[in-house]
Design brief:
Layout: H1 8-14, H2 21-31, H3 48-60, H4 65-76
């Protein structure tokens, strides 16, 4: 049973990316702004597996969906 809500750092770990605060901030800074007409999972910088994970989590409104949406907003901001 999973009781805690995943964090941005957890999401980056799940995606196989460096997850320390500086790395997360650097990732966002280097990949934004993502054009408004490009869904997060369709961004060119994801591997196919990363894109599939992001898409699945949003489609299923899974535990990860909230933090995936936070990343989406950060990149589209």
């Amino acid at each position: 049973m999973h009781l805690s809500t995943p964090t941005m750092h957890d999401l980056f770990d799940q995606l196989g990316l460096p997850s320390d605060e500086a790395s997360v901030q650097q990732f966002v800074a280097s990949h934004r702004p993502l054009p408004q007409d490009v869904p997060l999972a369709d961004a060119a910088f994801w591997t196919p597996a990363q894109a599939q994970f992001l898409r699945e989590q949003l489609n299923r409104d899974a535990d990860w969906a909230e933090v995936v949406d936070q990343l989406n907003m950060s990149l589209h901001d």
